[in-house]
Write a structure and sequence with these properties.
The protein is an alpha+beta fold and about 90 residues long. The protein has one domain: Zincin-like. Strands 1-3-2 form a 3-stranded mixed sheet. The chain is built from 3 helices and 3 strands, in the order αβββαα.
């Protein structure tokens, strides 16, 4: 279970950045808290979304992305596996 804190948001951002994704906060006309731009490694997060919404949206994206584990350190691999496991349990 994820805690909805700024630290969790930073961990998710760092995970994506380490995996080669660019994380941007923009205002947008999209209903979810984040989106992945087609055929690119850019994640756009709705800057007006609440903290919980941002964390949920990024966590869902991170769990669905094909991330190369060789780019991550042990803590990030464990965190990513936790995200994927959480999705399986839902």
């Amino acid at each position: 279970m994820l805690t909805f804190t700024n630290h969790t948001l930073e961990k998710l951002e760092t995970l994506l950045k380490t995996a080669g994704y660019k994380v941007r906060y923009e205002k947008g006309n999209f209903k979810t808290g984040a989106c992945l731009l087609q055929n690119s490694k850019i994640v756009v997060i709705n800057k007006f979304a609440g903290l919980e919404s941002k964390i949920n949206a990024i966590a869902e994206l991170a769990s669905e992305l094909e991330i190369d584990y060789n780019l991550l350190d042990e803590k990030q691999i464990s965190f990513l596996q936790q995200l994927k496991q959480t999705k399986l349990q839902l």
